[in-house]
């Protein structure tokens, strides 16, 4: 089933590609791979989760934000790939989580991104991943997601 049909079946619309917040491009293609810049959980130009996970942002809200950021990353990759149906496989996911010092559930937060990719791409969404706790992210976002996909 084409990915676009799967998205429709799931009731998911790819968002417009988020405008960069600094001097970079949202995604770039190298050979048969597309690499995205870190994507934040923007919906209609607004961040959905601001602050540190484990304090101002609950783990559940961070999981939802990771899902949103991953969807934004898919949109950025699809734009460079010539459409979402040209994405053949998700290779790598990096999820950064702005965390309070005692918060250690970064992998659970990253599952928000990984689970979305599995729903959308099926077996082609299985990937390697890093889940990294950091002190702060751009615009005080709670999460940031990067993708590498095969096209």
TrEMBL record:
Domain Endoribonuclease L-PSP/chorismate mutase-like: 6-150
Pfam family for this entry, one: YjgF_endoribonc
Gene3D superfamilies according to UniProt: RutC-like
Species classification: Bacteria, Bacillati, Actinomycetota, Actinomycetes, Propionibacteriales
PANTHER family membership: ENDORIBONUCLEASE L-PSP_CHORISMATE MUTASE-LIKE DOMAIN-CONTAINING PROTEIN (PTHR43760:SF1), ENDORIBONUCLEASE-RELATED (PTHR43760)
Segments traversing the membrane: none
Species this protein is from: Tessaracoccus lubricantis
Domain of life: Bacteria
InterPro entries associated with the record: Endoribo_LPSP/chorism_mut-like (IPR013813), RutC-like_sf (IPR035959)
Protein name: RidA family protein
